[in-house]
Amino acid sequence: MFITKGASNYLIVIFFILLSNFSLAQSNELRGWSSVEYGFEINDNMKIDLSQHFRLKEDLNVIDTYITESEISYEPINQLTLLAQLRYYKRNDNSGGIQGFENMMRYRFAIEKKFKSNKLNFELRAAYQNRFSLDRENRIKKRFRIRPLIELKMKDWSNNPKIYFEYFDEIEGNDQKAYRYAISKKINTTKSQSLTLRYFYQKYKEKYSPNSSANIISFKYSFN
Questions:
Q1: Domain 5-223 belongs to what architecture?
Q2: Which pTM does this prediction carry?
């Protein structure tokens, strides 16, 4: 059984209304994320993705971060994937005591499990990550994150929209917690190229500073 395109559009509109209600509850910053990704398969079970990211903050007026990323994924059994990711950041610190771009690294390990049904596809991902500064001492942010994701099955759609929630718990650093609500849609432009559009609403719960939130618009171009 499939969800029709009209019904799916109705669900997506409801989802955006809910996100808007969250956004109106407090002052929000608009951010923009963009990336280009190249992926290639090592064999039937292993794949490597290389990507370059560019991010804007403060209502798209200020450069936030340049990111270079590599990720390897391995599927030892069907519908179960192990992931290892390495990132280099060039992060713009324009609010702290030290101004300018800071060099940082982050590694992340994750496990994903997919569950498929006739109506919906469900995916659960759990990850641990550690981000640290290459320029300054005692600048560490270790996080545990968990993401349940639902893929809406729609008739005559090759790539279905996905709705998900992600929870971030900082286990070493400033004790920050974050909650991300998102919707994404992948569009195949050619057989080996695609464009993924995402919208996030992300809320930060801080222990040592005021809580904040952000609306994030993301574009990713991928090719194989």
A1: Beta Barrel (2.40)
A2: 0.84
